[in-house]
Please model this.
Amino acid sequence: ASTNTNLLYMHPEELVGKSIWEVLPEQEAAQIVDHIQQALSSGEPVTTDYSLVIRGQEYWFSAIITPLQDGTAMLVARDITDRKQAEEALRESEERYSLAVGGANDGIWDWNLRNNRVYYSPRWVAMLGYEEGEIDNSLDAWFRLVHPDDITLLQVDLTSHIEGETPHLEREYRMRHKDGSYRWVQCRGVAVRGPHGKAYRMAGSLTDITERKAAEEKLIQRALHDDLTGLPNRTLFME
Model:
């Protein structure tokens, strides 16, 4: 049977003598009745969450159903709407993040400075020729793949940004592919800071710029060498 949800705002004495079918919508009433029967048969309290639309707005409640010695049950419900809305907002945020990571051409990294663990997205891992699970979630796993000539500058840039000396991280360097070759990448990132400015998290992207670097190298080669002979031209000699 349909129920006027405004009954929820009646004084307790106005609810005395009414069945649960007169207080709740049919679907929610059936859910509660099912849990009441479960509590009575098991002799143990049962907890259930349910939602109601009240004056056009959805509210969430958590009910604890406790069996009593006389064969009846006591139900105590509390409003958990704020908690449910926060959980839903978090779920949607995580879903958007997951979609962004999955659809991005760039690799994503997310460094938790509190436990020193780093999340590397599937694209970040695949960009270097690896499968998921082949690169562990440590910072060393990242640094081990950086070209020896580039690692110091990257570490200096990371430290400078974490300490608040730069507005963001941006560095181009080489990383070793699984096949042994080196790929040029561009790393960007920004730190998340607490109330006192201390960084506790840092996240960013990794972009493969190998083709761009190769094109730049060709332009430099053409600018400084003769196209026919390949010999250094006058510009190179003047430098």
User: Anything to note?
Assistant: The beta strands are 46-54, 57-67, 73-79, 107-112, 117-120, 169-176, 182-193, 199-208. DSSP finds nine helices and eight strands in the chain. The longest strand covers residues 182-193. Residues 81-103 form the longest helix (23 residues).
